[in-house]
Design brief:
Elements (H helix, E strand, L loop, with lengths): L7 H14 L4 E6 L6 E2 L2 E2 L6 H7 L7 E4 L7 E5 L4 H7 L4 H9 L3 E4 L3 H9 L4 E3 L6 H17 L10 E2 L2 H9 L3 H24 L6 H14 L4 E2 L4 E4 L20 E6 L1 E3 L2 E2 L2 E6 L6 H19 L7 H18 L7 H6 L40 E4 L2 E4 L13 E4 L2 E6 L2 E4 L7
Helix pairs in contact: 5-6, 8-9, 10-11
């Protein structure tokens, strides 16, 4: 039997919180991600859907969770039935009875019966929370189920049940971490930080970016991580000026800057750290000036993460601070106001300051409310602060000394009533 990561009560509490956000007669439907991410004939590693795991703890592929608060049976899970032949090839399955008993569901059915059973489960509902356009197969199953529910109403004139994206509900809940989640998240961040330090020690001229990626995977898994939280970026030299550089195949050269953006996932919570440092030497000249300037901006902005402020506040401040860096380093002759008003700052700093962090690296949660007001930081939120400046080799109109340099520094911050807590402070700078 597979290890179950949390207690049943843990997920029951989350479902109770979801129930408080739903009205009578509403249904909530979550599909897991498909069994495999298939490339040619190779089956790549599977990770359970974050939302489905968040409310059930169930990790098997091709499963569906339906939550119908107020009905006699509020929780329904569709799963793979026990199948010895399948399990010989792919591993243990809880099966219908095992899933029901181990995960505290009111009822479970075989996924093979979903076309028949899902309409029955939704029959008393008046509204469905379901994420459309995620998978064609899921949309087909839902469409057929809703058509069957409609046909059961006869000539009542009722149309299909209205469908609402569940992201708004889930985002409200996942945005604020429980004490237990914060403990796990700190573990993910600590593992990530320790692995970054190992990479810093290993990075020498002649080592490839891919070697570093392999070492990162080894170091985080050695410390208990199940996987990396996202595809790691190991970008040396000019590669660091590509924000989502993925090739990781260059050879490290002495004196080049190396930008590493990587994080470990521990019990479905992920770290996200970026560090930049010189290969086989020390920071000198333009590298040193650029790095120290970005570091100062990053440290100042971390201190601004307080209850009541927002990403909008910090993004505006980051633009001004980084624009001033461009002026101080004589990279731009424009004023701060001109760089921002003309959006020329985005030539050098094309991303925003950070994002929510949790089960997913760009975690779910509203940045604005339905009235368009900025979401203020609250105690229990986790987020990243990651300013950066990038100057590709072919960039015109800047001093040659800065061409090919890219610097980003990123930490994971927990918002508390007492101020910001840097969960990745152990990663050396």
């Amino acid at each position: 039997m597979r290890k179950i990561l949390y207690s049943r009560e843990h997920f029951q509490k989350r479902r109770n919180q979801l129930k408080e956000l739903m009205a009578e007669g509403e249904a909530f439907v979550l599909f897991s991600t498909p069994q495999f991410s298939r490339n040619s004939d190779v089956d790549h590693y599977y990770r359970a859907s974050s939302d489905l795991f968040y409310f059930t703890g169930f990790e098997e592929a091709s499963s569906v969770f339906v939550f119908t608060p107020g009905q006699k049976k509020e929780t329904t899970l569709f799963v793979h039935p026990k199948d010895p032949k399948f399990e010989t090839w792919e591993g243990f399955l809880f099966g219908v009875e095992g899933a029901k008993s181990e995960f505290g569901m009111d009822q479970c059915f075989s996924i093979k019966d979903i076309d028949q059973k899902l309409p029955e489960v939704l029959n008393s509902s008046n509204k469905v929370y379901y994420k459309m356009f995620d998978q064609d197969l899921h949309d087909r199953v839902m469409s057929q189920a809703l058509q069957k529910v409609k046909r059961k109403t006869g000539r009542s004139g009722k149309g299909l049940l209205p469908i609402v994206d569940p992201s708004s509900l889930v985002g409200q809940l996942r945005l604020i971490k429980s004490d237990h989640e914060i403990t796990l998240h700190k573990n993910a961040c600590q593992i990530s930080a320790e692995a970054h330090n190992e990479l810093k020690n290993y990075a020498k001229p002649g080592v490839t970016e891919r070697e570093l990626h392999g070492l990162f995977l080894f170091e985080i898994m050695k410390r208990g991580a199940a996987r990396e939280g996202y595809p790691a970026i190991m970008a040396s030299g000019n590669n660091a000026t590509t924000l989502h550089y993925r090739f990781n195949d260059a050879v490290l050269k002495k004196g080049d800057l190396l930008l590493i953006d990587a994080g470990a996932e521990y019990n479905y919570l992920t770290g996200d750290i970026t560090r930049t440092f010189p290969v086989g030497g020390v920071l000198e000249g333009a590298q040193k000036d650029l790095y120290n300037s970005v570091l100062k901006v990053q440290e100042d902005l971390v201190e601004k993460v307080q209850v009541g402020t927002s990403f909008a506040d910090l993004n505006s401040l980051a633009d001004k601070m980084l624009a001033q860096v461009l002026i101080d380093l004589k990279i731009s002759k424009q004023s701060v106001e001109e760089l921002i008003e003309n959006k020329d700052i985005k030539k050098y700093y094309p991303h925003s300051l950070g994002h929510y962090l949790g089960m997913d690296v760009h975690d779910i949660g509203p940045y604005k409310d339905i009235k368009g007001q900025n979401t203020p930081f609250q105690a229990g939120m986790c987020l990243t602060i990651e300013p950066g400046l990038y100057f590709p080799e072919n960039m015109q109109g800047i001093p040659d000394a800065f061409k090919g340099l890219g610097v980003r520094i990123e930490d994971d911050i927990l918002v508390t009533k007492e101020g910001p807590v840097n969960m990745t402070v152990a990663a050396e700078k």
